[in-house]
């Protein structure tokens, strides 16, 4: 499936069975456009000089970031996907890619499961109810990767966090691990945006209530919560935005 088509389907609120139909595709597109109009969760991007985007995949948001003139650090762990990312951002000013797996413990080795949808659902966690929401997605290849922390990445890449202000997470259930490894530098961010589910999408994954409690303890409050995909009897995925108090 084309990358853009898959991303479009994933980011639409599921109000009906996911069947292949041009009419339904148009309806889903209208719902998604309405959601973005009513809930402009990314409006925070106009208030920061840049973004550190963890779980970059192929840099699908690169043009949006470029249009806003943002400094961008992309963080992507899968070597093959990282190569595509580097190619995709080539020639875009102030965007740089870093090949790391971020987690809570420096140097800990993980079995990283690579998904069949261009790596978009790849994770250090096993699939759980994610299978019920996207039954066509499965893991194929597995690679071993040593993790680093966001705090250490900032140090070794010599990043001046004054050039950013926003942290974006899309790490397929391991967001809490990334944030715990970022505690020493979290206070330098004004906004943290994350994708998160209110159910066990991945085995032992970070869930909405867990994330909200953690961020509150770190001095952030929940500014926006926008559902973007739901299946009855399974749960809902959200985009959430936290703002530092």
Word description of this protein:
The protein has 245 residues and is α/β, with parallel strands linked by helices. The chain has a single domain, classed as Vaccinia Virus protein VP39 (Rossmann fold), CATH 3.40.50.150. It is 30% helix and 26% strand. The chain contains nine helices and nine strands. It has a seven-stranded mixed β-sheet. Strands 4-5 form a two-stranded antiparallel sheet. Helix 4 links the parallel strand 2 and strand 3.
In round numbers, the mean pLDDT is 88
Count of DSSP strands: 9
Uncertain spans, ≥5 residues at pLDDT below 50?
1-22, 24-38
Distance between the termini: 42 Å
Topology as a string of helices (H) and strands (E): HHEHEHEEHEHEHHEHEE
In CATH terms, what is the fold-level topology?
Rossmann fold
* CATH homology superfamily: Vaccinia Virus protein VP39
The level-1 CATH class:
Alpha Beta
Count of DSSP-assigned helices: 9
Structural class: alpha/beta
When the domains are counted, the total is 1
In short:
It contains 9 helices and 9 strands. The chain has 245 residues and is an alpha/beta fold.
Spell out the key features of this protein.
two-stranded antiparallel sheet, alpha/beta, Rossmann fold, 245 residues, 26% strand
């Amino acid at each position: 499936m084309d990358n853009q088509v898959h991303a479009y389907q994933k980011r639409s609120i599921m109000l009906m069975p996911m069947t292949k139909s041009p009419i339904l595709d148009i309806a889903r597109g209208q719902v998604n456009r309405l959601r973005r109009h009513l809930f402009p969760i990314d409006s925070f991007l106009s208030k920061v000089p840049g973004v550190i985007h963890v779980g970059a995949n192929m840099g699908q948001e690169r043009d949006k970031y470029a249009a806003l003139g943002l400094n961008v650090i992309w963080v992507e762990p899968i070597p093959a996907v990282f190569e595509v990312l580097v190619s995709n951002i080539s020639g875009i000013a102030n965007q740089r890619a870093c090949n790391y797996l971020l987690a809570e413990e420096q140097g800990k080795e993980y079995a990283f499961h690579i998904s069949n949808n261009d790596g978009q659902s790849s994770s250090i966690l096993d699939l759980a109810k994610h299978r019920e929401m996207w039954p066509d997605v499965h893991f194929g290849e597995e690679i071993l990767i040593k993790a680093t922390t966001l705090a250490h990445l900032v140090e070794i890449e010599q990043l001046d966090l004054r050039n950013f202000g926003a942290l974006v997470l899309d790490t397929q259930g391991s967001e809490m691990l990334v944030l715990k490894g970022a505690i020493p530098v979290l206070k330098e961010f004004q906004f943290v945006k994350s994708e998160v589910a209110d159910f066990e999408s991945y085995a032992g994954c970070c869930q909405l209530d867990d994330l909200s409690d953690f961020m509150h303890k770190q001095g952030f409050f929940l500014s926006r919560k926008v559902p973007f995909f739901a299946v009855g009897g399974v749960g809902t995925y959200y985009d959430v935005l936290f703002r530092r108090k």
